[in-house]
Amino acid sequence: MAIVRWEPFRDLSELNRLFAPAAAQRRWLPALDLVETADQFVLTADLPGLGEDDVKIEVEDRVLSISGERTRASEENKAGYRRVERAFGAFRRTLTLPEGVDGEAITASFDKGVLEIAIPKPEQRKPRRITIGTGSKTVETESAAA
């Protein structure tokens, strides 16, 4: 049997981590999924507790920005303690779009706290076939031996 040294402050640091106010006020960033289909990119964001009026979507140059704010809904305050586990606050997520994406063609829908943005893929340039001409052309070069 191994002898383990008892460190009383180790247990206290774990309790402090659990109840620290800084942990409750951490920055909130919504989770995003980006899926590529044959003709579009689909961005899905979980925004629980927000409505479509609470979210702002902008496209500037080739950058898509999603921003909003989730406010504190409730907190428990009994017998001298306070417990807040859900993160809240303002957020902003950005995504650089591929070259050639038409910002006017981007659409968004919001249902049950899930935002879905459809980003059509840009038109791909089709390869151009170049025909090789017939005929011979000679190129004269000077000799260095002269």
UniProtKB/TrEMBL annotation:
Pfam families listed in its UniProt record: HSP20 (PF00011)
Domain of life: Bacteria
Annotated region described as Disordered, given as residue ranges: 125-146
Domain called SHSP: residue spans: 23-135
Transmembrane segments: none
Similarity field: Belongs to the small heat shock protein (HSP20) family.
Protein name: Hsp20/alpha crystallin family protein
Species of provenance: Solirubrobacter ginsenosidimutans
